[in-house]
Write a structure and sequence with these properties.
InterPro entries: Fe-S_Maturation_MIP18, FSCA_dom_sf, MIP18-like. By secondary structure, the protein is an alpha+beta fold. Helix content is about 30%, strand content about 20%. It contains three helices and three strands. It has helices at about 5-15, 55-70, 95-100; strands spanning about 30-35, 40-45, 75-80.
């Protein structure tokens, strides 16, 4: 996958906001990996802020919606993983400032 497409995917994913924290999933550090195969299937490997997060299905639907807008993407598969576990250190500087975390 070329870097331009990866950037487009990550930019699109910045439109997906974690409803609890009000910050997008990229700046929160929830997206671990994105890949696109030759048929246009985009695989997103990500985690959630907590295992019991009831908003997982809502976030997955939003991911599929924003990526469907990219012409290179034919379908999207979202894999939720718990390893490595998410913690606040994975957030971007922007997310830490927005949430008032050192």
């Amino acid at each position: 996958m070329d870097e331009g497409l990866k950037d487009n995917i990550l930019n699109a994913l910045e439109m997906v906001i974690d409803p609890e924290l009000g910050i997008d999933i990229v700046n929160l550090g929830l997206v671990y990996k994105v890949d696109v195969d030759d048929e246009g299937l985009c695989t997103v490997e990500m985690t959630l802020t907590s295992m019991g997060c009831p908003l997982g299905p809502q976030i997955i639907n939003q991911i599929k919606m924003v990526l469907a807008e990219l012409p290179e993407i034919q379908d999207t598969e979202v894999n939720i993983v718990w390893n490595p576990p998410w913690d606040k250190e994975m957030m971007s500087r922007y997310a830490k400032i927005a949430l008032g975390i050192g």
